[in-house]
Amino acid sequence: MTKLAVVLFNLGGPDGPEAVKPFLTNLFSDPAIITLPGIVRLPLAKMIASGREEAAKANYAIMGGASPLLPETRRQADALQAALSAARPGLETRVFISMRYWKPFADQTAAEVAEFAPDELVLLPLYPQFSTTTSASSLKDWARAYRGPGASHVVCCYPTAQGLVEAHARAISQTWLKAGRPDNVRLLFSAHGLPEKVIKGGDPYQAQVEATAQAVADLLPELPDWSVCYQSRVGRLKWIGPSTDDAIRQAAVDGKGVLVSPIAFVSEHVETLVELDHEYAELAQTLGCAPYLRAPTPTVDGALIDALAAAALEALDRGGAPAPFGTWRCPAAYGKCACRSS
């Protein structure tokens, strides 16, 4: 029986208060995040981590002291393994998890995959929209770590995959219906932001986020007032916009409430459970922006899991260089896309 290993990639998150500082240090040590020489970047990462440790601990305390990202990803891995086993019973399939900035790191997962000794590997980032700061960083880290057997197949991105789009649309629609179908809400698709210079350097992330939002909005004619915004800005660089807080302020000025969809996330974590559910909710209340609603992430929505399974199997059957799943193809300007640079 052919052995298939599917590796899911995500950022990871601290599993307790003592992990917060080393998690932050790992994050800011990544040259994809801070593009400075190591001799400068590593001390700077430690300094940033020290400066943010207490605030970050307070955020994770809201969630019980740890990030829920790994448990959420394990649920997705279990659901995906079941879907793949049902779709291809002739394969012996195992789904693994590799996190970028906290356990399980690529080295640990690579050893587990090598022990499984797969004939084929599918590398599947849980970032639907490709960026050099997420998917590319995780895939590079994996390439460094893995020395086991098997032919590798890479899913580059899947921003307009039908299952992803349907899962987001369902979460938004159910949130709106549960709130009583308010007609004075603006749908805000909120994604993690990036410095503008990253996008100008050929990173396709913003274009892919906007493509996801458009595809989801096309399924929601009952919510015609929508826009894309970006959260989590840090540092002094100019970031892509508009920012989520500015979008909420504008909605308040326009006499609107908001329904926020975390369009670039497929799992709940600190940016959804704290930033969206607490910080932006408090801002909206202060501004009189009501109602403030937040759609959940897809997590194990069946449509998302089916899309991930289809993406993995298409990559397995296709072979060769990294490629997107679904109808999306990056315009020529986005040379940093994995499928363009491979």
TrEMBL record:
Record gene name: hemH
Location(s) in or outside the cell: Cytoplasm
Keywords: Cytoplasm, Heme biosynthesis, Iron, Lyase, Metal-binding, Porphyrin biosynthesis
Annotated Fe(2+) binding sites: 192, 271
One GO MF term: ferrochelatase activity
Catalyses which reaction(s): heme b + 2 H(+) = protoporphyrin IX + Fe(2+); Fe-coproporphyrin III + 2 H(+) = coproporphyrin III + Fe(2+)
UniProt protein name: Ferrochelatase
Principal EC category: lyase
Cellular component, GO, one term: cytoplasm
Stated role: Catalyzes the ferrous insertion into protoporphyrin IX.
